[in-house]
Design a protein that fits this description.
Blueprint: E1 2-10, E2 13-21, E3 28-34, H1 42-53, E4 57-60, H2 73-85, H3 87-102, E5 107-117, H4 119-129, E6 136-140, E7 158-164, H5 172-184, E8 189-194, H6 218-235
Parallel strand pairs: 3-4, 3-5, 5-6, 6-7, 7-8
Antiparallel strand pairs: 1-2, 2-4
Length: 237
């Protein structure tokens, strides 16, 4: 496995991603990874390595620029909201990450997927809603609400949502709204809900977050990763 920092640009801003690739030069499926609110940190970089070990070329994207990672919860929320609130910038940076992955010579552009965590899950779904050519899309404790509901025929990937039953940021009403949205436009979707799982249940550092409703849960982490692998075995054929 090879890893490297991958710089790419959008409107003159350097976005600093993290690329993990299996050994060899043959073309392989590519997977985008979208980070949580703090930025492109060790959590998503570790996931990139795990995906490379499975045989995929994985790019952990940078939605903030210059590889910025927040040093506190309030800073992370401010950074996330600044990007989310500027829709052209947000959409442009989503696409810039997608294009950076497609441009890799060892990526099969016909076999692409995206996964994301928390804010990154929101990014994945917005990329799918935009019509990006993806085979699969997976969110882990991702935000599901949107101001841009999916249009008929526009969402290409099969979608897997992995969410916690005790996640205060993704309540049952939000999950139901997502299901209704995707059913209305004929998307192939599935939702896995993990009992006892809080927000950020895949992140081993979540227990140190000083906010109620956050916490790591090994069982939900393991089961959701296995569910992702199952979807990828279906779409990457």
């Amino acid at each position: 496995m090879k890893t490297q920092t991958l710089d790419y640009k959008y409107e003159g801003i350097t976005l600093r991603g993290y690329l993990a690739s299996p050994d060899g030069s043959e073309r392989r499926p590519g997977v985008l990874i979208f980070h949580e609110a703090p930025g492109c940190d060790d959590h998503v970089k570790r996931r990139a390595g795990m995906l490379a070990e499975l045989g995929y070329v994985a790019l952990a994207v940078d939605m903030y620029g210059e590889g910025k990672v927040a040093g506190s919860g309030p800073e992370a929320l401010a950074m996330m909201n600044e990007v989310k609130g500027d829709v052209p910038k947000f959409q442009g940076r989503l696409r810039a990450g997608y294009d950076a992955l497609v441009a890799r010579p060892n990526v099969n552009p016909q076999q692409l997927a995206a996964i994301g965590y928390c804010f990154g899950g929101y990014c994945v779904l917005e990329l799918a809603r935009s019509g990006a050519q993806l085979a699969g899309a997976v969110t882990f404790h991702g935000l599901l609400a949107t101001e841009n509901p999916a249009a008929p025929g526009k969402v290409k990937p099969k979608i897997l949502v992995c969410t916690g039953a005790e996640d205060p940021l993704v309540p049952a009403a939000q999950v139901a709204g997502f299901e209704q949205e995707m059913t209305k436009v004929g998307v192939d979707w599935q939702v896995n809900i993990y009992s006892g799982a809080k927000h950020a249940f895949t992140n081993t550092a979540a227990d140190q977050i000083p906010m109620p409703g956050f916490g790591y849960q090994p069982a939900a982490d393991r089961r959701s990763w296995a569910a992702m692998r199952g979807l990828f075995s279906e779409v990457f054929v």
